Amino acid sequence: MEEGNQSAVSEFLFRGLCNSKELQTFFLVPFSILYLMTVFGNLLVVFLIITDPHLHSPMYFLLANLSFTDFCLSSVTTPKLTVDFLKDYKTISFWGCMAQILCVHFFGGGEMVLLVTMAYDRYVAICKPLHYSSIMDSKKCIWLVLITWIIGFVHSTSQLAMVMELPFCGPRIVDSFFCDIPLVIKLACMDTHTMGTLINADSGFLATTCFILLLVSYTYILLTVRLHSKDGASKALSTCTSHITVVVLFFGPCIFIYLWPLSITWVDKFLAVFYTVITPLLNPAIYTLRNKEIKNAMKRLINRHMVSRDNF
């Protein structure tokens, strides 16, 4: 079946964000800048956390993994989208399309679970501060991150396996800027209604389950601290605001896409841009702007650079 797929349809054709050549030319610069900012912002957070001893804690270890995941997720789709603004025919090979499907769901699914892990870390830190160091030791943190990658891998391979079973023998135009599964399976030479339902159920189940766990976790954190302190709720909210903001920005579009029964092309494209291009950029901005330790680490990095330059 895989050989048949490749010989029947060797490549797919993207419609992109719009049909207007002028708009595509206009989008080239801002999307290029957004991607460069995403790469710089996320890799800077990773670099700071690795090199600054003050940030060697479970929370920042998880944050470094989140930034790395965002960098990878954005790199799967944004460079191709940007280059395609210059092309009249936006093509991608069959196996390139399959690789996009695998990577988008691998990093996207992994990030969902990672956000739940970060919520668990905040729960232990706020609700069980005396036992935090023993519960969230380095070994457990590594295992938690490994579990997120394993779940992301299982999720992505299960999605790809279902797509690979489909025969592609005719239509090849994907009405998007990357290989989004619901649009790709519509091109199969068979009835894919049942397959589409299974795929949406798989992604929807993971997204909804993680989102509910996050809501329960942060609600429990706020209620628990409120019982022990008069102004505890505001302090807990201040501590978790960054996490909650990221959760809403990431899960909102994903849940809407996979659970909303109606498909409106421009809405789907906007939401796809939001969670593959915008959210990976907002995450480092949200954490660096609100996190005093990250800002202090940036100041220390700049000071070290200035001292080194003066000595040189």
Global outline: globular
Using DSSP, what is the number of strands?
Answer: 3
C-alpha end-to-end distance: 63 Å
C-alpha Rg (nearest Å): 21 Å
**Count of the domains:** 1
Number of helices: 11
Looking at the structure, the CATH topology is Rhopdopsin 7-helix transmembrane proteins
Class derived from helix and strand content = mainly alpha
Largest sheet: 3 strands, mixed
How much of the residues is beta strand, in percent?
under 5%
Order of helices and strands: HEHHEHHHEHHHHH
Q: Helix coverage percent of residues?
A: over 70%
CATH architecture: Up-down Bundle
Kindly report the name of the CATH homologous superfamily: Rhodopsin 7-helix transmembrane proteins
What is the chains' assembly state? single chain
Strand order of the largest sheet: 2-1-3
Which spans of ≥5 residues are poorly predicted at pLDDT below 50? 1-7
CATH class, named Mainly Alpha
The overall pLDDT average reads: 84
Explain this structure to me?
By secondary structure, this protein is mainly α. The chain has helices at 2-8, 21-51, 58-84, 94-127, 132-135, 138-164, 181-184, 193-228, 232-259, 265-290, 292-311, and strands spanning 11-14, 90-93, 173-174. It has a three-stranded mixed sheet with strand order 2-1-3. Residues 1-7 have low confidence and may be disordered.
Task: Give the topology, please.
Blueprint lengths: L1 H7 L2 E4 L6 H31 L6 H27 L5 E4 H34 L4 H4 L2 H27 L8 E2 L6 H4 L8 H36 L3 H28 L5 H26 L1 H20 L1
Parallel strand pairs: 1-3
Antiparallel strand pairs: 1-2
Helix pairs in contact: 2-3, 2-10, 3-4, 3-10, 4-6, 4-8, 4-9, 8-9, 9-10
